[in-house]
Write the structure tokens for this entry.
Amino acid sequence: MPKVAKPPNFLQQLAELREEVAALRRSGWERDELPFYPTSLHGMVYEDSTSLVTLWETILSPRTATLSLGLVFIGDVVSATNTGGNWQVLANSTDVVASGTVPATFSYQFPALTIDLTPYRALTLLKVQIQVQRTAGATTGGKYGGGGSIGGAPRYARLL
């Protein structure tokens, strides 16, 4: 004799779903988004300094082992002269954890990096800074009068 499957009880299904949702809420997200804040004296995300200047920074509690960071950089164009430069990411105000260049091609650069926070786990607070400097291009004119500028911003920052 064939067995007939009994349709599931609606109230039982609802109770199981509620328990699953409650468990998801207790477990939290796998990643936490991290905000960065602009620090430029010009109030914009461009800087024309020939020395490294902090554009963005944040302070975090390094409770996870990894910071995933996506950045965007572009050089300026002044009187048909392209501006290039360097960028770096500092941890704890002194440790360079990543660096790169901004080519003088007036094209966007999208570096993506993973920063190991293990050496900083004992700290209560950790400052992370994004810095840029102009190394090539016009020396006069531009956004602030000192030559071409380097623009930069974080695209995403996630604690993993």
